[in-house]
Amino acid sequence: MTQPTDIRGEHLRTALSLAASGVPVLPLRAKVPFGNCRRCADNACGGRPNMKTAGPCACPGPCHAWAAATSDPDVIQSGVWRHAWMRATGVAYHPGGARLTVVDLDNADAVMWARENLPATRIVPTTRGEHWIYQGPMRSVNAVRPGIDIKSTMAYARWLGPGSGVMAALPDAVRALAVMEPSPPRRAPQTLTVLLAGGQGECLHRAPTYLERGIAMAEQRISEARSAIHATVYRTFLAVLSTHGRCGCLTDAHVARLFTAAQAKGETPRHCIDAWTNARTALGM
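-> structure tokens emitted (285 positions)
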């Protein structure tokens, strides 16, 4: 009966060891950060100082996911954090806060691609692939290639051990991945055409500007979202389709604008397509 406590005590010891090396850490529960407390729900507290949202947060607990990561041993061992460690199933860290970048390779194909295209560096085995860790921060981007995410600033990575190999400086080849167009969007025009098929109803728009204004308002709603991005994108797609989706006026260009706004907030092309499809299904389209 003592094993779970021993394991969770080991998580705390690991966190303190990492913090002593200047690595900001946070507890994980079921491979994800602990949810915000009631006071911080929906960012009502204003967010952490190192988040995009303004205003400090005085919450003493491990709220706000990656933004809660700290290397302060007093915070890590404080009462509310210690309670979280006793429920934790793992340790995470904020790579950008430690001036690191993690290239998360999620499968064997992704690992093979990295071996053929990226400089050797420190490698940490994961359940399905590998983490390649480089010295130097950059912005985090998901799905830069099939099975490959970049985790650095404003992101967290699961601590799976120190790994092996000499850590290399962040190469241009990794930085370039963040500006390369992921492979799914290259198929977006074809996919959008399929998703738009079937709008054959009577057009009730008063003028073309009515549709243009609706798309512009939808873009603004998505771009101004500060929390619940997935839900905001879905609700916005639902609103656009309910108003403009049945008469056939929506074009690939209109939908591409919505997808671009959503991806600028961190949504992946796959999430955009899923949200669009789910909205159509909800409307019986």
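The chain has ten helices and ten strands.
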